[in-house]
What we know:
heterodimer; A: 242 residues; alpha+beta; Alpha-Beta Plaits; 4-stranded mixed sheet; 10 strands; globular; B: 285 residues; mainly alpha; Formate dehydrogenase/DMSO reductase fold
Amino acid sequence: MSEELRVSPIETREAPGKRRFAMVVDTRRCIGCMACQVACKAEYDTPLGVNRTWVPYKVVGKYPNVKKQFLPRLCNHCDDPPCVRNCPVEATYKLEDGGFVLQRYERCIGCRSCMAACPYNARFMLPSHRTYTPITNVVDKCTFCFHRVTQNLVPACVQTCIGRSRIFGDLNDPNSEVSYLVATNATQVLRPEEGTKPHVFYIGADRNATEFPRDAYRQPEVMEQERAAFKRHFDIRGDNHG
Amino acid sequence: MGDYVWFHDVSWHATYAIYFFVIGIVAGLTFLSFLSWHNEALKPIRASSAWGALVLLAIGGLLLIADLSQPLRFLNILNPFYLNFGSPLAWGALNIVSFGIALVVYLFMLRKGDGRGGRWMAGIAALLALGLPIYTGFDLTVHQSRPVWNTPIIPVLFVAMAIASGSAVASLLAGGNAATQATLRQYLLWSTAAVGVMLVSILGTTHHGGSAQELTYLILTTGTMGLIFVGIGIVAGTAAPIALLLAPFGRQQLGVVLAGLLVLAGGAALRYALLMGPQQLQTLY
Lengths: 242, 285
């Protein structure tokens, strides 16, 4: 992207002297082991019922030719993030060097404006009680493992990915693996029409899986029944939701 | 079958819809109190509508604070070192506080019987009150990924709904005053008609949109949400009061009060559906 294409001053893609971290998810290599989800949960003590990263899947095809299509999801660390624009107290901000979209927990008032603004459902409210971590009742999200990256480590989900489906690096560095992958493969981002300039790039993602899922086309009543069943099994967050 | 879909939670719950409803009435009552300085027929409700606005503002403010997951940090939003002026919520917080101060000063002048000062403060309070439905509308409009919310007409719709809801509450406050009720009938009729026109425009645009718009239209018009939005909001709360006010019975005081009650029920339903409906689809993404 040339400098002329950066429409907002917040964007740091190809900005000289700045790093711009990104993740490439090669869905052809994902085997759906969910190790990334587990590693993330372990790294951050993410409570039950919410996720910083998750791996939804669809079963496609017709018997006997069927397969599961995985679409690992996380915060897209957008170059022009709507959550940052919407936070009234600047609790959410974008780091200029690196492009991380981070959260100031001590400042968050819990208005959920950032959650409403995020087109990717990457944000969630932490419950009021947690066993080991004192951060409660504020909005949380994936940080691209900022604390690990600053120690020259890759994010926990990337470290654990057995199929090397997730690759992480500096997109502004022409010699990085992510730069090479983005330059030499046909990549997709989620919901490009939103103009958020996401920095999670997918290789081999099915367009049908990157748009609203098939469930959305079911009868609203059926959808609500399934949602209620889902909540009974997974949602034990207590009083922090409606 | 066999798909693994993660159902996300909606961001804003029904408390916010109640807040929209209450703050709309506050704005409407403040407009009417201001207009009473220019229209003799509204003079009997000048003080009562201003006091009603203050009580409802207190309720709305408490609702807004209670809805935060960190209620005691509501002061952060008034901290100039924290404020993000790109967020409509930040402007809204400043608007509510300045409106509250203006309303209290206005009521103080009314109690003192200061006609000239009261007239000026009524104007300032009404101007700040105009910001309340506009900022709540912008709260929704700025969310680019949400069909229906991301419509420039939403702040204007909220202003029309504020006038309608305020006039409806004022018709209850006016009691048996025939002249006041006749004036309020006009406000009710025209503001509700404006709401109807804008709803048709929003629904038409949404229906003709892409897949997200189409699905949001389906969610808003079918099932329980359809009953709330179309049944109570549009049919019972918008079309029925217009028909009632145009009928001979609608020119009587009881007719105006009845139409006002329908507008209130419709206003509550519309705000709930407009807030919750467009969030449902996103929970599946």
